[in-house]
């Protein structure tokens, strides 16, 4: 088996928007990354169109061993139903269920933004902050008509035999608290998944008010890749990514953000900009993180906006001397320790 590891950037745009094909760059789908090791595939996040991109990349659902969610914002999970329901059709294979691993229930409401002009209440008071396992259950319930039809008429097995959802348990020694200490300093990366090909470790990153929010590192016999998830500059991520062969880090153009919300109320605009400032990373900051971690290569993804000019992202090279990659959707990026190859889209 060829274990040369690489990622496929199924989608490289971030944010809950539709990024059209503008005059500056090609169309980008929602954030999603396939980690390929030998014949196995591990999926990180399920942004818009990622299920279709998975097929376009020539990947087979029978290769899928795990789905990992960095956090539960919609731009990272909106295509999860596609993988769960269409992937269910691979039922009958003789392997373990596909692991669906992500944050657990927050456990309490986040603070209301101080810009609020009145009372703000959760949409679903009975389950306002469902975690990964509960979200998967809710999704299967939402599609109960489809599932019942296929189980009773087509004799499909229960989807629970194909997918097994699991909440990530944050180690108690981190001191994590969703409101008071969402990103404790000095977190020791902890293992969340291991099989014969990969060991996946996680750390807590800074993406308030979402908590917990994670970054993931995949270590293989041939190399490593670290995927930041959504985060502001964070020492925990630097520690997780130390010496990694490839760091995929989010990036946002803050100048774009300042001009992008002219059509909303002043309170919403200020709350949104405050969120971007405290929860995301500029290209220049991403370069600083890569340098601090000693990453061998840096690739920017989860690009906001998804149609910015390439020179916006080039700022990552101001503080980082290694290769800076700005992949398009469906690019192949090797993370083998002995190569710096970037393959074109297939």
TrEMBL record:
This is Ribonuclease BN. One of its GO terms (molecular function) is 3'-tRNA processing endoribonuclease activity. It is an enzyme of class 3 (hydrolase). Keywords: Endonuclease, Hydrolase, Nuclease. Its EC number is 3.1.-.-. InterPro entries: AtsA-like_MBL-fold (IPR044094), Metallo-B-lactamas (IPR001279), RibonucZ/Hydroxyglut_hydro (IPR036866). The gene is rbn. SUPFAM superfamilies: Metallo-hydrolase/oxidoreductase. It comes from Corynebacterium comes. The keyword Hydrolase applies.
């Amino acid at each position: 088996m060829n274990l040369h590891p690489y990622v496929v950037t199924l989608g490289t745009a971030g944010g809950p928007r539709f990024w059209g094909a503008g005059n500056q760059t090609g169309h980008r789908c929602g954030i999603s990354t396939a980690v390929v090791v030998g014949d196995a595939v591990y999926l990180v996040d399920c942004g818009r169109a990622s299920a279709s991109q998975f097929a376009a990349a020539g990947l087979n659902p029978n290769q899928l061993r795990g789905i990992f969610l960095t956090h539960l914002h919609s731009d990272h999970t909106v295509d999860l139903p596609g993988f769960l329901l269409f992937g269910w059709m691979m039922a009958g294979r003789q392997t373990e269920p596909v692991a669906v691993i992500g944050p657990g229930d927050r456990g309490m409401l986040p603070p209301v933004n101080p810009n609020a002009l009145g009372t703000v209440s959760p949409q679903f008071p009975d389950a306002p902050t469902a975690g990964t396992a509960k979200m998967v259950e809710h999704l299967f319930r939402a599609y109960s008509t489809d599932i019942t039809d296929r189980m009773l008429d087509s004799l499909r097995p229960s989807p629970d035999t194909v997918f097994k959802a699991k909440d990530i348990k944050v180690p108690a020694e981190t001191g994590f608290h969703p409101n008071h200490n969402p990103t404790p300093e000095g977190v020791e990366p902890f293992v969340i998944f291991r099989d014969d090909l990969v060991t996946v470790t996680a750390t807590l990153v800074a993406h308030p008010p979402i908590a917990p929010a994670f970054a993931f590192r995949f270590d293989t016999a041939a190399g490593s890749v670290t995927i930041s998830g959504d985060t502001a500059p964070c020492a925990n991520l630097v520690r997780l990514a130390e010496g990694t062969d490839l760091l995929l880090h989010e990036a946002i153009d803050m100048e774009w953000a300042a001009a992008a919300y002219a059509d909303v109320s002043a309170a919403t605009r200020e709350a949104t900009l405050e969120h971007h400032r405290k929860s995301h990373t500029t290209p220049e900051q991403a370069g600083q993180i890569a340098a601090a971690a000693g990453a061998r290569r840096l690739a920017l993804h989860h690009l906001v906006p998804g149609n910015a000019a390439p020179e916006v992202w080039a700022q990552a090279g101001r503080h980082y001397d290694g290769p800076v990659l700005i992949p398009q959707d469906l690019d192949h990026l090797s993370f083998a320790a002995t190569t710096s190859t970037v393959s074109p889209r297939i």
